[in-house]
Amino acid sequence: MAVATQRAQDLKLQTFIWQGKDKRGKVLKGEIEGKGEALVRADLRKQGLTGIVVRKKPKALFGGSGKPVKARDIAFFSRQIATMMSSGVPLVQSLHILSAGQKNPKFRKLVDNIQTEVEGGSALHEALAKHPVQFDELYVSLVKAGESAGVLDTVLATIADYKERMESIKGKIKKALMYPAIVIFISMLITAMLLIYVIPQFQDAFQSFGADLPGFTMMVINASEWMQSHGIWLLLGFIAAVAGIVFAKKRSRNFARTLDRLLLRIPIVGPIMHKAALARFARTLAITFRAGVPLVEALESVAGATGNIIYSDATKQIMSDVSVGHPLNLALRQSGLFPHMVVQMAAIGEEAGALDAMMVKVAEFYEEEVNNAVDTLSTALEPLIMVVIGGIVGTIVVAMYLPIFKLAATIG
């Protein structure tokens, strides 16, 4: 097997730049993929070209490694392989076709490595398991179940659907968090610009009045002076705080747990996060259980797919309860985190032997709830942004014109 693997690596496709002349003497240039310069040159000769020059394409100095392989790329990989295999194309050939059509070098290299492993005699799930960053345990276990049952193309198509739905939910969550962040950022930016650049202009004019300024105006001027002196430190402190939170969340599970718990309690955004976690829980449980994965093992995969540590910890406790004989619906109820509807649907599914179908219904319900909630949030926050900006500008305008009104009243 080692010899076969080495031979496959030696015959891996590479990109070459070529130049040659056709029968009319016209110089032609281009790029071609091949397994070696000699083979590429032979292929070009068969096309009637002469004076052929072939060289390996050099790697780009900047950005040559390509973009990172993302979840949507894995969904595309699953969909394409499933489509070709269902059409009768062998797995190795499907991988070769997919690799040849990729423009992202990192993605192409990933597919090439998988193809090399499969050509060397490894099962697809074994080849995927060597790339845990792109293919997690859930993906590998589903592919393994599909290979064992002889329905790999169907399982891959199901995985593609699952990945696309998960990415859709993730996008909705980002959108739900982005709108409040935008409101805060715009408010802070406009306030800072007014305090640093606009207020000083009024301050110079007020000095010529020679009169005492209203308290409200003095408060705004003092804020402006403080911002001019300490604004850069405030900005650096804000950046450091954000970076510190991100770093601590990655390094400390306890901190991440506290952050996720707070996120679930934020008004408006919290309910969306709850619904998104429930949708992920139900969708992941449905796809794993439908693929023939035992319930306890399925729950282990679900724990890592909920997207929230609070739900992940609850799922692990549910898995522990189920492993000692508790029905799933009872374990869900005891966690205190799952709504009555989810518990009842699980009970019906267990009783009817259709747990996967019931969980699909639950997932579809909460996915629709997330969509509606995010659309409502975005609609409500658009006018709120205008109100906040108008309030900031209006407050500063009033503060700056109070001395003018006071002076006019004195003269009158």
TrEMBL record:
Location of this chain's protein in the cell: Cell inner membrane
Domain Type II secretion system protein GspF: start-end pairs: 77-200, 281-403
InterPro entries xref list: GspF/PilC, T2SS_GspF/T4SS_PilC_CS, T2SS_GspF_dom, T2SS_GspF_sf
One GO cellular component, as annotated: plasma membrane
Residue stretches spanning the membrane: 176-199, 230-248, 384-404
PANTHER family attached to this UniProt entry: GENERAL SECRETION PATHWAY PROTEIN, PROTEIN TRANSPORT PROTEIN HOFC HOMOLOG
The name this protein goes by in its record: Type IV pilus assembly protein PilC
